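[User] At your convenience, examine this fold.
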Amino acid sequence: MSHTYGAPPPIPWASRPRHDVRRPSQPSIAASMSNIMYKNAVYYPNYRVYRGETPASLNLNCISHVFYAFAHLGPDGGVFTQLSDEYADTQIEVDGATGCLGSFMRLKQQHEHLRLIVSIGGGAASHNFAHVAASAATRDYFGKSVRGLVDASGFDGIDNSGLSKMTTVVDWEHPSNPEQGRDFLALLAAVRLHLPDDQYLLTAALPAGQWALQHIDLYRAQDYLDLINLMAYDFTGSWSQKAGHHAQLFGRSADEGHGNAAINYVLSTGFPAAKILLGVPVYGRSFLNARGLGHSYDGCGGDEGTFEYKDLPRPGTEEIIDTTAIGAFCVGGDGGWVSYDNPQTVQMKANYCKQKRLGGLFYWTGTADAPGPRSLIAAGFKALHDA
């Protein structure tokens, strides 16, 4: 059961829809994926295979891109031999194939629209990026090594989750000062020498906050990047003084982190809207003994303060939607006050993407989603492609 409170804030209509993309009036999933306008991407962490959540468990009928997480970066810039779990990646029998990568290669044959991108780094494995990016020699070796990994494994590109920028995804998480920001651009340029943009994708995962984004010349970054995955979540958590929405689209005060502020900052730099994906968490953050937004709390429930979305709302609780902030929550059972997204808030975020003419949505992680009508990924896809 759910209900809403608050009035949705006005969202200015950015501009008329692009006339160069045909959108069917009542698109089926299959029809939309053959001529997709918006991206609906997910991260797949390789360790999920040990939970029985194999690549084939993803609903690829409504997923355009899979970011395969993670490859690690060595101090010399090498990534080719730095897959984080070689057994999961290339050896375990899964979905009738060998390794998760083998499964994805088979799935790509069945879903020709699908793009598979290796994510390099991640929050726990991005410590070598600053060192590698600071030297022309290690930057060049990184680019060569990435090309070897991508070609050998069948990826379409990289995601730099350590650089906070790359598809390969560069997942540095983020440069921490202007010098690292300049090194970041130099690293992207080095990668592009080895991954030409007419053949490979290059993306970056970045925090949704000016405190991190300000160190990067985003206007220049557009020359190298196909996409930025803007991680519009974890605005609150166990480090916060009060319970709060952790993935709100709109803040109630100027000092609250929220997705809209980050989007507007990126757009203000001249970075193209169509290259921005808005991040959706497929998990909730718990604040024990808090009964409402802004309340004090005493610890966090779940696994390191989080509950997977498929386990929400908590048993015996009522799901409530805050249409002002754009976020859902439940209270009790016993996660305390739990902040998360549900299909209704994802629909609102998808509509926001269309109004801002963004590239689409991405989800961390695809395997934590719920099946059927409560699927966040399906809700986002449908809302993005409904006329």
Remarks:
- Residues 12-282+342-385 form a domain with the TIM Barrel fold (CATH 3.20.20.80).
- The first strand starts at residue 2 and ends at 5.
